[in-house]
C-alpha cells in the first residue's frame, strides 16, 4: 500500500509538477502527515522534490527530473491516452486514471525534448552522467525561449547553497562551459550562473518580460571579475599539447624553437596551481617566479603526504 501510494504521488507530480499535500491525502485517503513522510522517503532516494508550506505552498518536483524515456512515439502516446480517456468516461476504475496520468507525464517530458542548436547536439556533462546535464540544458533553453522564470537550487564555487528565482535571458558557452545569463530576483540584478552548478531547476509557472540590454553590458570575464590576474608564461611538452590547447585555447600556444610556449593572463589562485600540477610535469612555469614557487611548494606537499 505504502509504495503503491508513493509511486502514484510521483506520477502525479511528474504530470502536474506541483500539488498540495492535502490534494494527495484526499485522493489516496491517507493523512497529510503520511504524505509528507512518503515525500521525505522519495527525497532520500534522490527524487528532487521541493516542499514549501503556507498559503501558496505545495510539493514541487524539479523540471530537470524525468523518468527514463519510453518507446512510444508522440502519436502512440496520444492514441493510447485518447483511448484511456474514452474508457475512463465509461468505467469508473482508478487504475485506468492512474495509467492515463503516467502516460500523460511521459508525453509531456517527450514534448519538452529540445535541441540546443538545430542539428547539433551539445552535451557539456561528464561521461556517464545519465543525461542529467542535458536535462538542465533543456530546461534552461526552454526558459530562455519562452521567457519562463525558474527556481534553481544553486551551489556556488565556494560551496554556498542557495535557492533563488531567476529570469533566464541568454545561454553562454565559454571555455567549453555552459552558463545561463539571468536576472536574479534575490540580488535584483543580472548574474551569470554556471549550469553545471545548478543542482535542480523548476519552472515557477510565471512568465517574465525580457529586460533590454546590449552585448557590451554582459561581463564575459565574469569568472575573473573578483580575482587577481597575473601574466603567465608556460612551456608545454608536445605530449600534452592537445589537453593544453583545450584549456588555454589553440590560438594562445605557439612554437618557439623546440618548445611550445603559452603567454596568458590567468587568475592567481589555487585553482591555477592545481591545474598546472594536473599535467604531471608536462606544463612548466617560466614566469612569474611567484607562481613557480607556489607550484613547487604544492608538489612538495603532495610528495611528503605520500
Mean pLDDT: 79
Strands, total number: 12
- The radius of gyration is 25 Å
CATH fold topology of the largest domain: Arc Repressor Mutant, subunit A
In CATH, what is the class of the largest domain?
Answer: Mainly Alpha
> What is the CATH architecture descriptor of the largest domain?
Orthogonal Bundle
Structural class estimated from helices and strands? alpha+beta
The percent range for strand residues is 25-35%
Helix proportion:
25-40%
| Strand neighbour order, sheet with most strands | 7-6-5-4-8
Any idea how many domains?
A: 3
Tertiary shape: elongated
Order of helices and strands: HEHHEEHHHEEEEEEHEEHEH
Highlighted features:
Arc Repressor Mutant, subunit A; 3 domains; 306 residues; single chain; 39% helix; four-stranded antiparallel β-sheet; SH3 type barrels; 12 strands; alpha+beta; five-stranded antiparallel β-sheet; 9 helices
Question: What does this 3D model show about the protein?
Answer:
The protein is elongated and about 85 Å long. The chain has 3 domains: 95 residues, Arc Repressor Mutant, subunit A; 86 residues, Roll (SH3 type barrels), CATH 2.30.30; 77 residues, no CATH class. A hairpin with a 2-residue loop joins strand 10 and strand 11. It has 9 helices and 12 strands. It is α+β, with helices and mostly antiparallel strands and 306 residues long.
Outline of this structure?
With 306 residues, the chain is of the alpha+beta class.
How does the SSE layout of this entry go?
Layout: H1 2-16, E1 18-19, H2 21-28, H3 32-44, E2 49-52, E3 58-61, H4 74-90, H5 94-111, H6 132-146, E4 148-155, E5 161-174, E6 177-184, E7 189-194, E8 198-207, E9 229-236, H7 241-248, E10 253-256, E11 259-267, H8 270-277, E12 283-287, H9 289-305
Antiparallel strand pairs: 1-3, 2-3, 4-5, 4-8, 5-6, 6-7, 9-11, 9-12, 10-11
Helix pairs in contact: 1-3, 1-5, 2-3, 4-5, 8-9
Amino acid at each position: 500500500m505504502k509504495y503503491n501510494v508513493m509511486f502514484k504521488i510521483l506520477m502525479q507530480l511528474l504530470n502536474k509538477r506541483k500539488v498540495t499535500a492535502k490534494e494527495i491525502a484526499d485522493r489516496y485517503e491517507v493523512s497529510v502527515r503520511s504524505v509528507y513522510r512518503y515525500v521525505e522517503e522519495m527525497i532520500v532516494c534522490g527524487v528532487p522534490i521541493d516542499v514549501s508550506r503556507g498559503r501558496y505552498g505545495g510539493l514541487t518536483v524539479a523540471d530537470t527530473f524525468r523518468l527514463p524515456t519510453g518507446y512510444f512515439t508522440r502519436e502512440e502516446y496520444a492514441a493510447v491516452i485518447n483511448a484511456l480517456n474514452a474508457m475512463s468516461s465509461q468505467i469508473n476504475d482508478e487504475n485506468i486514471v492512474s495509467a492515463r496520468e503516467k502516460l500523460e507525464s511521459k508525453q509531456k517530458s517527450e514534448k519538452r525534448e529540445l535541441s540546443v542548436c538545430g542539428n547539433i547536439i551539445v552535451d557539456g556533462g561528464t561521461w556517464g552522467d545519465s543525461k542529467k546535464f542535458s536535462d538542465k540544458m533543456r530546461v534552461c533553453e526552454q526558459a530562455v525561449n519562452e521567457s519562463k522564470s525558474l527556481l534553481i537550487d544553486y551551489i556556488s564555487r565556494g560551496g554556498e547553497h542557495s535557492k533563488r528565482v531567476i529570469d533566464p535571458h541568454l545561454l553562454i558557452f565559454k571555455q567549453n562551459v555552459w552558463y545561463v545569463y539571468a536576472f536574479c530576483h534575490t540580488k535584483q540584478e543580472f548574474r551569470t550562473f554556471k549550469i553545471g552548478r545548478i543542482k535542480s531547476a523548476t519552472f515557477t509557472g510565471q512568465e517574465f518580460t525580457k529586460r533590454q540590454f546590449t552585448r557590451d553590458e554582459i561581463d564575459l570575464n565574469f569568472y575573473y571579475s573578483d580575482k587577481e590576474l597575473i601574466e603567465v608564461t608556460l612551456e608545454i611538452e608536445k605530449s600534452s599539447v592537445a589537453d593544453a590547447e583545450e584549456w588555454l585555447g589553440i590560438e594562445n600556444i605557439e612554437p618557439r624553437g623546440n618548445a611550445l610556449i603559452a603567454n596568458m593572463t590567468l587568475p592567481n589562485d589555487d585553482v591555477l596551481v592545481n591545474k598546472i600540477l594536473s599535467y604531471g610535469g608536462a606544463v612548466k612555469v617560466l614566469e612569474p617566479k611567484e607562481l613557480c614557487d607556489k607550484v613547487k611548494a604544492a608538489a612538495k606537499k603532495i610528495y611528503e603526504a605520500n
